[in-house]
């Protein structure tokens, strides 16, 4: 077990590990594994070499590829860990595991990576993540071609680490997600702008999100989206799973959330951060990339926004 100190960056000692799931060499999952599940992976050799040939899943070159995939996954993960290190101050870390989700069964269809908060336990220092096929594909292509990843893929793990730091609040918000009451669905809808907005703030401040250009644009769109969500939630006191999905399945949380969070930070904690936040907003609206240390400072403040406080502000 390691306790993180923000002054001492010690990523390699944390020994994050990634493993393929399913793994062809894992005897527990061996019997059911199909070559087709792996054939989409760049570099996987799925040729049919005739009767004498061994299973493609156990070819030496493919076994080397499994190891390479696990190495690449940890490499970018560790780089991200270093980027957000000061935010992890005082956190206990025992185990950081990444499940490389080859079949896409663990990740949602649009996810690149996930922090699996319901499997993680901050008290024991155990944290679990998954890496989705779409992101693995990007990582492998970039590695094979020696090219740089787009900013989106360069901030994916940072986004997930911010979820980890925000663990307690996500747990609280999940109560709304699991409720069938329409009032809770609306609360869940609103708080998602906080829960995804804070991690996505990292991407915005690094120069992401070209569509929404300023706080006003975001607030205008948010007002329209919120009215629609209220309308859908007012249909009855309880909602079916499908009705809930219709309210909650949207990318607006990611696109608008960071701006909505920034807007709240102007008056947050008695307006104490107004000068800093106003200056950051001005720079982002002018299309500038914010300095890394300032980004961490803003995130540290944003992570103090309590879910209830956020819901109350924007209800
Ligand atoms: Zn997220």
What can you tell me about this protein's structure?
- The protein has 14 helices and six strands.
- It folds into two domains: 2-165, no CATH class; 178-314, no CATH class.
- 34% of the residues are buried.
- The chain has a four-stranded mixed β-sheet with strand order 2-4-6-5. A two-stranded antiparallel sheet has the order 1-3.
- It is 51% helix and 8% strand.
- The structure holds zinc ion (ZN).
Short characterization:
The protein folds into 2 domains: 2-165, no CATH class; 178-314, no CATH class. The chain contains 14 helices and 6 strands. It has helices spanning 60-83, 133-145, 151-154, 156-165, 167-178, 182-195, 197-205, 215-233, 241-248, 252-265, 268-271, 274-285, 292-302, 307-314, and strands at residues 2-3, 17-21, 92-93, 95-101, 113-115, 126-131.
Largest sheet: spatial strand order: 2-4-6-5
Distance between termini?
41 Å
* Spatial extent as radius of gyration: 21 Å
The averaged pLDDT comes out at: 92
Class from helix and strand fractions: alpha/beta
Please summarize the sheet with the most strands.
Answer: 4 strands, mixed
Small ligands present? zinc ion
Give the fraction of residues assigned to helices.
40-55%
Count the strands? 6
Low-confidence stretches: none
Report the β-strand fraction as a percent range.
5-15%
Q: Outline, from the CA principal axes? A: globular
Element order, helices and strands? Answer: EEHEEEEHHHHHHHHHHHHH
Overall number of domains: 2
Q: What is the helix tally?
A: 14
